[in-house]
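Problem 3 from the worked examples.
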Amino acid sequence: MVRKKKMSTAELLIDNLKLNIGNITSLIESKGADAFGDDNLLSGEEIEDYSLEFLELFVGILHTQDLVSDKSNKESHEYKALISFFNNCSEEIQIRGGTMDLFVSYMHFLQTSLIEGLHDDTSMTMSQYREVLLMMASLFNDMTLNVFEIYLGEKEFTIKAQQEELLQTSTPITEIWDGVLTLPIIGSLDSSRTMVVMEKLLQKIESERSRMVVIDVTGVMTIDSQVAHHLIQMMRAVKLMGATPIITGIRPEIARALTNLNIDLGDVVTRATLSEGLKEAFRYLNVTVSTKD
């Protein structure tokens, strides 16, 4: 007597999909129209194309399931292809004004459509039905997490790029006169910002052969030992490049803070305003600026 081979959970689901592909496809398209149709995010044809592509890729994943553990191989080409499909779909929805929440809803009704398709399968026992549901839940949980990880990774990359761009543009270095640079500092100086500003400043000193650098700290609201340390580092770097630094805009509260912290700016020239600092730089270079009659 030949015993019938016991089917794996993945094989049971594949058979169910083959038997009910028409009903499942209709369910997915109907739910997709309800979700995206009102906002005109996806057309009926696009929803149909997405549905058919999803089912094809999903069946491909089921064929790679381990027959013993019923776990999917996340390194397989089929699994990566389905994750790529979801990412592309998510990006398309967001480009058209949709949200990530809407896309998660899309993944949810894909899952519920598959579950509703199982209801019509009378060939499975209750135990098999439960195993298929558990496997499907595990698959969709893994896929949702993977999509979110990629989404958050892209978000983090975008935020970092924006922060870097802001760092590059928030501290403009301007050659106000031949040999004279001005550097207005607004906000606080942390280590990362100091490195960016210092690198740009030293490059500018070298390229313009600058002899005077007027650093205006009027926009620095508070100062602590760390900010003062970064400021002193900048002064020393300017001097090592052969230029003379002038600090302007030190307000009374900043002066008191520097005194309380026992911060000695050494022989750094300081002036009350940017205008006074520029006059000092011009005097140093023997440049006379006068009003034309």
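Problem 4, a separate protein:
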Amino acid sequence: MQNLDRYQRQYLFKPLGEEGQKKICASRVLVVGCGALGTVIVSTLARAGVGFLRIVDRDFIELNNLHRQVLFDEADVKANLPKAVAAANKVKAINSGIVVESIVSDVNFTNIENFAKDIDLVMDGTDNFETRFLINEACVKLGKPWIYGACVGSHGLMAVVIPKETPCLRCIFESAPPPELSPTCDTAGIIAPTATVIASLESTEAIKLLSGNKSAIQKSLFSFDVWTGETRSFRLEGLRELTNCPVCKRGEYSVLSGKESSRTSVLCGRNSVQIFRQDQKHVNFKELAARLEKIGKVSFNTFLLRAEIEKYEIALFPDGRAIIKGTSDPAQAKTVYSKYIGV
């Protein structure tokens, strides 16, 4: 049982109260993605007293993350730490009274339901529509509420999805926008306040839901530009009834079934491609490092092997998943993977 005294300034806020705080302390939250959005969400919810935080992220920390990913520092970069591990370490120092679980993994159709099945709320800290559609389908299927957030440049979006009560993400966006029409961190950049504001809005809605204040949630797709100060709110009430949504109306889970999932994905702002193995075969870092050291610079720890070979930087995880830096061409990335790591 957590000591409620540390949250007194929070539960003095009348809509929350001591009973609401107790509900927060008993809640379980999954944060998918621990980058610009995810680090703010994790920090805020840990400080708010969420009893159990499961942090899942596929990536490791780089120097160019630090301007916006608030939980990390230069020591984490030097230690080659995965984001989920570094975030969990920071949470333990922030609030030792809660339980935090870190999982270094790509969230995909093979594992999302397992990650979410014992959770009260799912938080979106991702940077791509494929994963968001996956979260949406899993949460609709499992009946779990989730909170969508997205940001690029100075602009961000946020919406709350409660299965059978609000429109789901597929009601709002029939399909992901084509890449050529979608600005990313790579093409438009991002300033830190954008992520901080949107993640804070997501966290506010999470506190409402977890404390039992569901009637107070935002019922709109909220849009905010931190640079211009322009705010828009697109009402979503009634949208679910107007659509013939394949997910929340017809129960079709095409992404969750794996029909629309890929083995590769181009990473935002990284000139990098992620490759994951369906078999998730465990990699022996020591043996692989001995082989790769003959042709490049290699370092590894329990969580990650990094190799610099020719013009490429390879970050390899124990389950065989890799991030190939130096190309944005999935075919070329697969070639590099096969050449240096194996099929």
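Solution to problem 4. The mean pLDDT is 91. The longest strand covers residues 146-152.
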